[in-house]
Specification:
Length: 249
């Protein structure tokens, strides 16, 4: 069901959310909900648009000649370097947490699964954009294979890189996790991912800003609450720099 602006405004008015703000403002729970910019952004965007709407895809001749690396260029840890030296032959993607069937998938198996190829624009919070071609496994396929438990609400992406000693991580709710353009990419521009771009796999969540596109993904964890991950805000930059958890564009 698509909610129009007229229906949304009418519904808010009928429910007293556009009138009586002083009365609602006296209640801490309502105040927390109504005056959170992040919650309002996410609610309004999803109420007024199709939740499964696709990000724009481009032609191959529109791809950027240079695609900068965002974030970390190389985790630089002994464990990660050992994987690089062996071509990631011993690497396994862990899928665990609130799942019925925990997985440990080698890169070769991921590459043998049904692949989605998409040419999309990466929009970095630093102010630059680039168009690239991504090859990867739809995240939905992996989550279906693992079998999410009913209590699962979020997917946490644990990564190999560390910043200031803290492990990098990101998270999505199930709406974005099951979006058809959300993939774990193992290839870029018709080649395997380079170290700079997140080898062996990185997240592509095309309707969100670049910091949500976690690189060097080692583990997917299905959880019911984000408060136990990192410092509890749902991502490294959300924890340390107050970035918005929902980075929809």
């Amino acid at each position: 069901m698509i909610v129009t602006r007229r229906k949304l405004i009418g519904g808010l008015a009928a429910g007293g959310l556009l009138g009586g703000c002083d009365r609602l403002g006296e209640s801490p729970p309502f105040r927390k909900i109504l005056f959170s910019a992040e919650q309002a952004h996410r609610f309004l965007q999803r109420a007024l648009t199709d939740r499964m709407a696709l990000a724009r895809e481009y032609r191959s001749d529109q791809m950027s000649p240079v695609f900068r690396t965002n974030g970390t260029n190389n985790p630089g840890t002994p464990d990660y370097q050992a994987h690089v030296d062996t071509g990631f032959t011993n690497w396994r993607l862990q899928v665990d947490g609130l799942v019925a069937r925990p997985l440990a998938l080698p890169l070769a198996e991921l590459r043998s699964m049904p692949t989605r190829v998409q040419i999309t624009r990466h929009d970095c919070v630093e102010g630059w954009s680039a168009i690239g071609k991504w090859h990867g496994v739809p995240l939905k396929l992996l989550l279906d294979l693992a079998g999410l438990r009913p209590s699962a609400r979020y997917i946490v992406f644990h990564c190999a890189d560390r910043i200031g000693g803290a492990p990098y991580y990101e998270s999505l709710d199930l709406v974005d996790a099951f979006h058809p353009q959300t993939i774990l990419a193992w290839g870029m521009n018709d080649r395997l991912l380079s170290v700079g771009h997140g080898a062996p796999v990185r997240l592509r969540v095309e309707r969100q800003l670049g910091y949500k596109h976690a690189k060097y993904v080692m583990r997917l964890e299905a959880v019911d609450d984000l408060r136990r991950a990192g410092r509890g805000k749902g991502g490294f930059w959300e924890d340390v720099a107050d970035y918005e958890w929902y980075a929809g564009i």
